[in-house]
Amino acid sequence: MSKFDRRDFVKATGVAGIAALAGCSGGGSGGEGEGEGETSTSSTSSGGETRLSWHAGGTGGTYYPLSNEFKSVIEGHTEYGVQVQSTGASVENVGSLHSGDADFALIQNDIAYFAKNGTGIDAFQGNPIENLMGVATLYPETIHVVTLADSGIETLQDLEGKRVNTGDLGSGTQVDALQILNAVGITQEDFQEQNTSFSQAAEQLRNGDVDATFTVGGWPVGAISDLATTEDIRIVPIDGDARESVKDAASFFADDQIPAGTYSGIDEAVPTVAVQAMIATNAGVSADVVENVTAAIFDNVDELSIKTDFISADSAQDGMSIELHEGAQAYFG
């Protein structure tokens, strides 16, 4: 099976990705207030408090609520204030870290690797993001391919000719969706692509505007849970030869499964694949800030309620795909 075919990727994500790399981090799912373009480690509030800008993802995924839990922990154990911003997630967040609009962000380990090495997708091809630095890995980012139970879609191959939402334009979800589809022989010419946030994609499914959606996130994903309370859903398995083709096409995909009972009506475990969520920063953030933020999170994991089966200091370098920031190195040793 050939590697990810990039020939049409610039059509889908080039504008969004390159705009983000230039510092234009609009779009996505909106923001949470004014002044988000400031490099917050070099600015303070009137009370002298250091303000950190933390870029998350769409409100219907896992990044956003988890980032708000990190905010609470950091503010509870340091003198820093944290502003969490909803975004289009991984690719956009890399651009915001590159430009200094974000001090910290959640991204996928595959997108981090592509960005740091200037490869993989056209948004980064030949344009390595050298100031992108790793902090910690967190949990598996599970690939969910969701459809309605009566759609007749039972395998990845059944998506050919269908209306498929592959996630926000330029997001890590879109990158993964196109890689997975290409790995089983479905190119962008073979289906009707739509791009929205997780929550909007769920509404499209509910309203019959798309046939299937890709969502990448730690289960349970809120938007899917909400959809499953009102609709009978099916999660399309990625298994057998299709799974092997996906893993052959991109080495950062690993076997995973969505446990039975994770979503209403899903009574058996669903085999799939996953990447890894991680915290990233940029080289311009001071070592003291990164070390203190890292310590606040990983010394107080018991104060979190999301993905606590996975997030720990012991596993925080598993799957780390880029160089660590010196502040993270100081904490993890």
Automatic annotation (TrEMBL):
CDD domains per the UniProt record, alphabetical: PBP2_TtGluBP
Domain of life: Archaea
Keyword Glycoprotein included in the entry's annotation: no
Entries under InterPro entries matching the protein: TAT_signal (IPR006311), TAT_signal_bac_arc (IPR019546), TRAP_TAXI (IPR011852)
Keyword tags: Receptor
Region feature (Disordered): 26-56
Bias (Low complexity): 38-50
Protein name: TRAP transporter TAXI family solute receptor
Source organism of this protein record: Halarchaeum rubridurum
